[in-house]
Amino acid sequence: MRSRDVRRMLGAALLLWMTVGCTPTAKAILAVEPASGGGVRVLIAPCPGYDVQQFSAITAGGAGGLQRWAVSNDAMAGPLADMELFVVPPGWSVDESTLQGLQDGEEHVLTVVGAVRGRGLDGKVRFRPDRVAALKPGQVLVSDDGETKAISRSQFMKADSARCEP
User: Fold this and answer.
1) pLDDT in tens, 129-148
2) Is pLDDT above 50 for 94?
3) CA pair distance 50, 115, nearest whole angstrom
């Protein structure tokens, strides 16, 4: 079996795990908003001591099947407040890049893996590109309790100790 096939199978397993998951529910520590140039900016909630280790974007639909873009923090520790989707942050490296851009009409799942004081704290947000484009200025999309909703950016950026507790 070729390594590319193995990566695809692992990606499919990851998508299934993220969809039905056997781990604690991801917290609403991720949000998305429109970026200049039509892209998507990802925001990470301000959680004191939150070390971001990995970030990924997955879509399973369309003619291309499962596609994934994933990056890892080379230091495996440190904060990350925001990033533009598909732009590798300084000090990070690409793990997989079968997803090259947003797929119109398809649901995308963004996941961040990290820790606070060595205890795992992951976040997830689901969205369709048209829903991000339709946001009013000052709004972001978040996923909370399995529901994706628009809230104000300022509300998302407020300190929330419950959201930041693993």
Assistant:
1) 999 999 999 999 999 888 99
2) yes
3) 6
What 3-state class would DSSP assign to 88?
coil
Are 43 and 33 contacting, i.e. CB atoms less than 8 angstroms apart?
yes
Contact 135, 123 (CB under 8 A): no
Give residue for tokens 């942050």.
89
Q: How far apart are CA 116 and CA 49, in angstroms?
A: 6
Calpha distance 7→79 (Å, rounded): 28
CA 73 to chain centre: 14
* pTM for the whole structure: 0.81
Contact between residue 41 and residue 83 where contact means Cβ atoms under 8 Å apart = yes
Contact call for residues 99 and 113 (beta carbons, < 8 A)? no
Between the CA of residue 4 and those of 10, 11, 86, 96, what are the distances in Å? 10, 10, 20, 10
